[in-house]
Amino acid sequence: MSRASSGGGAPSEGFVPDPRTASWGSEPWCAELAAQWAQRLDRTSYVPMARESLENVLCELVGEIVEGLRTPGATERTGERIGERLVRLNATGEDSLARSLDLLRRALLPTSSDESTRQVFGLLASIASGYAAADHATVLDQQDNLRRALLWSKMDSEYRLRASRDRFREVFRTTPVGMGICDGKGTFLDVNEALESILGYSGEELRSGTLAELFHPDEADFLVNAYTELLRGTRDELRERRNLLRADGGKAWTRVSLATLRGGEGFPGRFVVMVEDLRELSYLQERLQHQTLHDAVTGLPNRQHFRSRLETALAGLPPTERLTLYQLRLDGFELINEGLGYETGDEIVRTVANRLQGLVEDEDGLVARIGGTEFAVLLRQDRYTPKISEFAELINKELDEPIYIGENGLAPTASIGVIQRAVGDREPVDMMWAAEVALRGAEQAGKRQWALFDPQRAPAERSDARLAAVMPGALELGEFEVRYRPWVSLAEGGLLAVEVRLSWQPAGYEALDHDECLRLAELSGITLSLRDWMLRTAWTQLGEWHAQGMHPQLIAGLSPNQSRDPDLVAVVRDLVDGGALDAGWLRLCVSMKALMSSGGEARDNVTTLAGTGVQTAAHEFSGAPSELRFLREFPTYAALLAPDVVRLIGECAGEEDTPEARALAGMIPLVRDCGVPVAASEVSTERQVRWWREAGCEIASGPYYGTPLEAVEMTELLWSGAPPYGLAG
Question: Which residues contact 41 (CB under 8 A, 6 or more apart)?
Answer without folding.
Answer: 47, 54, 58, 89, 91, 93, 96, 99, 100
